[in-house]
Request: fold
Amino acid sequence: MKKSNALRLLSVILTIVMVLSAMPFAIFAADGCEHPSVTDDNKCTVCDAEMKAKVTKSDATDIYFESVETALAALQGTGYYGATLTLFGDYSSDIEVSSGNFRLNAGEHTVSGNIYIKGSAVFSITGGTFSGNIEAFGGSSVYLSGGTYTGTLKSHVKYDGFNLDNISVSGKVIADEKGCGFTINRGVYTGEIILSGGADVITSYSGNPEISTDCVVTVSDENNDGTYFSVETGTFYGAVNVLGGTFKVDGYARIANLNVAEEANVSLSGGTYFQINCTGEKTLFDLLEKRYVFISAFDADTVVPCKDVSSLSSSVKVVECPDHSFDENNACPVCYALAEALVIASDGTTTTHDYFGDAMSYAQTLSGVSTVKLFDDVYTDTPVTIMSGDGIVLDMDGKTFYDTSAGYDSCGIITAKNLTVTGNGTMNGYLGVMAVSEDMIGELTIENGTFNSFVAAMGASKVNINGGTFNEYVYAQARDESVPELKFNGGNFKMIFINDADYNWYSALGENKGYETDSSEMFKSFSFQYTDVFGFDGTENGTMLSVVDHTKHNYNDNNICIGCGAEKPEEPSTEPTEPSEPTKPSEPTEPSEPENPTEPTTEPSDSSNASKRSFLEILRDFFTSLFKLIRQIVEFFTK
Reply:
C-alpha cells in the first residue's frame, strides 16, 4: 500500500514537470527581467516580452524598454546624459520632455502625438515622420535634424534654442512672441513661415534652406515689438512679404519675390533678387544698406538705378559700391551715401572720411585740438580708442551713434586723452575715460546730448559733465587708491555710482550747483552687477537725478542741504542771559596818562571795563537791599 502511494505521488510529480516543460518560459519570467538583448523581431531573448524602444547610453550600453513612456521617464532622470532613444514602431501618444539631454531617433516610424519640450530639457530628433505639433518652451533647446514634419513647429524660446536642420516641413513654422524664434539651417519648407510679435529668426551661413514656391514667408510687427528676420543664406522661391519689423539680407540668398510694405524696415547688403515691389513712398534705394547698390545679375558693371524706383522685375544683385567717391556735398554720386565725418584740424584744414573710425584715427595724428564733425549717423561694431594726439572735439551735429555689435561685445569710444562731446547728438555706444600713467590721464567733457549707453571713468581720470541726459549709468571706478575726478555742472542721470562707500557726491558739484530728484532717497549703497557701489539709482522708481542751478538751501533733519550738501550755520541764541552775581565795587583809580595821546586806539580801556564791573556790582547791591526791605515789611505784618 505504501509502495502504491509512493508510485502514485511520483506519477503526479512527473506529470506536473511534463506540463510545465510544455509551457512558454516567459510565464516564469520575473517582473525584474533586465532584457539584456532582443531578437530580430524586438522580443527579449530572456523573457520573450515585446520591446517598444531601445536607449543607447553615451558609453554605447543598450537598454531595452517594454514601453516608450518608461523609456522617456528614465531618460529624464540621472545617468542618461547624451543618450539616444530609438523607437521600434509608430507612436501615437503625446510626448512631454521637461529635463534631461537626449536624442529621439524615430527611424522610419511615425510619431503622431504632439511633442512639448519644457524646462531645461535639451531634446534632439532624427529621422521619422511627425504629424503632430512640436513646441518648445522656457529655457529648453530643440534640434531637429532630419525627418519629415507635417504639423506645426512653434517656438517659445530664443532663436538659438530651436534649430531646424536638413528637415522637410510641410506644416507651419510659427514664432509670434518677443525674443522667440528659430535658426533655420538646411531643409525644404513647403508650408508657411509666420514671424510676428517681436520674433527673432535667422537662416545661418552653415546651411542653405530651400523655401518652395508654395511656402509664403510673412514678417509683421503690428505692435512694434521688434520682429527680426535675418537671412544669411537660402533660396526663396516663394513670396517673402515684409509687412513690418526688420528684414535683413547680408549673405548669398536668392529671393524670387520680395514685397515690402512702407512701414517695414528692410536692409539689403547681399543677395540676388528677381522681383521687388515696394508700397507707399518706399523706394528700392530705401532697402539698401549704406554704400550698397543694385547691379545687373548678368553684367557686374551695370549699376541699376534705384533712387526713385519702387519696383523692378529684372534679376539684380546687391553689392558694395564699386566706384565709391565723394562730391562737393560729401556724398557718393554712385550709391548716394554721405561721408560719415569731417575732420577739421586746428589750422582749419578739412578732410572727408567715409568711416567714423577712420576719422577718429586720423584726428589723433594731428597737432593741436582737432574737431571731428558727423555728417551722417554712425553704425559700427568696432570700438574707437583715443591714445594719442592733443585732444579731439566730437561734434555730433544732431546725429546718432549706433552700436551694431551683438551680445557682450558692445562698442563705443574710450579715451586716455582729452575728448569733448558736443553737438546735441545721441550716443548709443559707451563712453569711457581712463588714466594710463601719470603722464597720460584721460579727460572726458560732455556738453550736451542723449546717452543711451553707459559712461565710465576709471582710476585717476577726469570727467566734466555740463549737460545731457544719461539714460544708462555713469560709473566712477576707483582703482589702485585713485578716484576719478568728477565735476557736474548740469545733466540728468538715471544712475550714478562709484565703488567707494565713503565718496562724497556733493564734492562733484560745480560752483552754485545742486542736485534735484523726485526720489525719496538721494544717495545710498546698493549692488550693481555683483559689485557694491554707492550713489543714486533711479531705476527702481523711474526717477532721474538732475544737476541744476542752486540758489536756496533745503536742509534735512541732520541740518544738511539735500541739494548741495552744505551744513546749516548755527543761529545766534535769542535766550536772555541771567546776570552774574555782583561783586563788591572796587575803589576808583586815577586814569593813567596815555603813552602817545596823539594816536587813537580802538581797544577798550581798563577804565571802561571797570565802569561796567562797577555798574554790575551796584546793581547787585541795589537788589540785595531791596530784598532785605521786603523781608522786613513781611515780618512786620505777620507779627
In short: Confidence is low (pLDDT under 50) at residues 19-30, 591-616. The CA atoms of residues 129 and 148 lie 5 Å apart.
